[in-house]
Amino acid sequence: MDTEQQRFVETFRTFLEDVVQSAQARAEQGGPSSGSVVGEHLGTDPRQLPVVREEVPEHQFVDLDIALSAVVERAGGDRVVGVGGGDQRQHQGFGEMLADRWGTFGPAAVDRVNLPTGPDTTRRAVGFGVRLFTLDGTPVAVLQRTGHRHSGQLSGLEVVATRESVVAGLLEEVRRLMLELSVLRGQVLSFSGSPYDASAGGISLLHRPAVGAGDVVLPDGALERITRHVLGVGEQRERLRAAGQHLKRGVLLYGPPGTGKTLTVRHLVASCPGTTVVLLSGQALAHVTTAAHLARALQPALVVLEDCDLVAEDRGMHPGERPLLFELLDAMDGLDGDADVAFLLTTNRADRLERALAERPGRVDLAVEVPLPDLAARRALLQLYARDLPLSAPALEEAAGRTDGVTASFTKELLRRAVLLAATDGREVADGDLTAALEELLSDAEQLTRSLLGSGGRDED
């Protein structure tokens, strides 16, 4: 017997032991079964009624709980009954529990689960329980359950009622309210799955950043063009629709690393409260199709794909699939033109994307270069990062003149190092610290550092 077979045997033996122990306990207690409790509520034998199942993705379970609770409240309230039976109940459907062939599924405490509704808020939802209520004069029983990875059970509802039309109407209303009342609407979402973020089904809910236009230094007119295309279209959606113009749009920000593309994205996200934002980067780019579905359902929406050149050659989740870039393009194609959804792409390697985008015209309708800062931009960056520091204008001007070819990231690190040098000596930063930090960063010893900051390893002329 190999390891897998032995594991299966042990699992099955544990399952049978649980069944026998639960049955013995129930027999000793003489308590009611779940089937009898539900049957008393329905006024008939529930084993003779069909069970209708509605499954939802794990990240939508909190929406399901909110939607069903709204239906129940309008109907006059409900009684929630837990289901006993240990782990074996996770392997059973509602119909099997109601049949109670093993005599194990009696009333018990209701399982509750805390689910995020925002970066700092949660909801205590029914994780496993039967909700008994009356809808349109018809008694209804609904088993609400979260997913269970080991049994293969998915999150969802299982509904029993004496009138099938009531079941159909209930599920239709729950679907409508899940969309209308979704906690994801207007949130900033990420597929990062960080254990330190509020997460529901692998989707993290993040704080919206606070980045003003004054924090972004781009060539003259660039930020205005980007903002008009990403946000202005949504602000003028009714006029554009009335004029027969489409709302779906794609914007590409390209340029060397460290020049401010991500900061521009953060500013745009900060500037559209109430808009659903889906952030994808790194491995999370594989979820682009799911992100597009979310954006369509929760529009107005902004889908951000950072460093999308990384997926130009990467394959999907299975061998033989096309590059993820084409999944992205297909996801953009799949939205109706009047969908108020913006796709915002950033890349350090526009050459890797240009051919694919050119072969599929219409996906990106604005491309804006975010170049290395010129002298005026370097002055602005130094003033921005040194705004609370006691550094003189001549010192900042000298630094701007000596840093041709560097990035915004380099400038930010320059000011940090100057402050660190002064702090190490226990004093306020001064012009000499800025000069010393600049000499250090421009030295041969820091060539790799400059490269990592996006400045190409350039030495001072």
- CATH fold annotation of the largest domain: Rossmann fold
CATH architectural arrangement of the largest domain: 3-Layer(aba) Sandwich
Number of strands: 15
Residue share in helix: 40-55%
User: What is the global morphology?
Assistant: elongated
Low-pLDDT segments, ≥5 res: 23-29, 457-461
* Mean pLDDT across residues: 84
Please, could you describe this protein's structure?
The chain has 3 domains: 178 residues, no CATH class; 182 residues, 3-Layer(aba) Sandwich (Rossmann fold); 78 residues, Orthogonal Bundle (Helicase, Ruva Protein, domain 3), CATH 1.10.8.60. The protein has 461 residues and is α/β, with parallel strands linked by helices. The C terminus is likely disordered. Strands 9-10-8-12-13-14-11-15 form an 8-stranded mixed beta sheet, sandwiched between helices. Strands 1, 2, 3, 4, 5, 6 and 7 form a 7-stranded antiparallel beta sheet that branches. It contains 16 helices and 15 strands. The termini are far apart.
Give a summary of the structure in a few sentences.
By secondary structure, the chain is an alpha/beta fold.
Descriptors:
461 residues; Rossmann fold; Helicase, Ruva Protein, domain 3; 3 domains; eight-stranded mixed β-sheet; seven-stranded antiparallel β-sheet; 16 helices
Give the topology, please:
Elements: H1 3-29, H2 34-42, E1 52-55, H3 61-75, E2 79-83, H4 94-99, E3 107-108, E4 111-116, E5 122-135, E6 138-145, E7 156-161, H5 164-180, E8 188-190, E9 198-200, E10 203-206, H6 222-235, H7 237-242, E11 249-254, H8 261-270, E12 276-280, H9 288-297, E13 301-305, H10 324-333, E14 341-347, H11 350-359, E15 366-369, H12 375-385, H13 393-401, H14 408-424, H15 431-441, H16 447-452
